[in-house]
Each structure stands twice: as structure tokens, then as C-alpha cells.
């Protein structure tokens, strides 16, 4: 029996996660502190710190895990992914380097049309424990099916 026959649409409503926000903030603070310790002129260190802070702010605003726009990720029964954020929707292709663990899933995508990549870090608190469990199970099933589909060399 094919597991795909029974695959239903999976919709993930992604929200901010306080643990990821904390880790991001700590990494940013340590980066700024280490920049200030470099043996460079004060003007260069200040410019580097301002640049890093601006890039971090941009990342914070764009990533739904940190506090950006709400994100809806839909995985339909035909193995297609849909990313909806900020009133726009894109069809994406799941890449093979997706990371699945007990407490975290990192989804890596390529755009179906055009070029570009997207990534999403998911924790159980980000999408809900039940949806997170369903996502992990389906990703493992898809991984097993893709490994079984690869012909073995003689």
C-alpha cells in the first residue's frame, strides 16, 4: 500500500518562537561584542557594528520565526508545497538537505518557478505539537520512499 494515497493536506501556521528569538539575540550580542574587541580603528568597528545591527534587524523583520509577517505553509497530497506570506503565495520544491530531528525541523526549499531559496526553522512551539508531529512523520515517509526509489547499482 502506498502511504501517499493516504496523505492529506497539511497546513502549518507558523508563529514566532521565543527560544529562537533568544538564540538570535544572544548570537547578535556576542557578534557585536567580538567586533568591538577587534584591533581596528573605532570608526571601522562602529561602522561594522551598525552594519551588523541593520542586517540583523532586516532578518528579524523578514523571518516569521523571529517576528516577521505571519506565514502559512501548505503541503498538499500531491507533494507540492505552498508558501503564503504577506499576501503573496509561491509554489516551492523541497530540497534534499532538509533536517528532521525530534525537536526541530529545518525545511529548505527552491522556488518552483524562477530562482531563489527559502528556509524555515520549525520547533514544536512554532506550529503546534500535533502539526509538528504530523510533519515529521510525513517527511520521514517521503525520505524512505525517495531512498527506495533509487535503483541499486549491481
Explain the overall architecture:
The protein has about 150 residues and is of the alpha+beta class. The protein is about 45% helix and about 25% strand. The protein has 4 helices and 7 strands. The protein has helices at about 20-35, 40-60, 125, 130-150, and strands at about 10-15, 70-75, 80-85, 90-95, 100, 105-110, 115-120. A hairpin with a 5-residue loop joins β6 (about 105-110) and β7 (about 115-120).
List keywords for this structure.
154 residues; alpha+beta; seven-stranded antiparallel β-sheet
Give the DSSP E fraction (strand runs of 2 or more residues).
15-25%
- Biggest sheet details: 7 strands, antiparallel
The residue ranges in which pLDDT falls below 50 over 5 or more consecutive positions are: 147-154
What structural category arises from helix and sheet content? alpha+beta
The radius of gyration is 19 Å
Mean pLDDT level: 85
What's the helix count?
Answer: 4
Overall structural domain count: 1
Any idea what the shape is?
A: elongated
- Calculate the terminal CA-CA distance, rounded to whole Å: 27 Å
The residue fraction in helices comes out at 40-55%
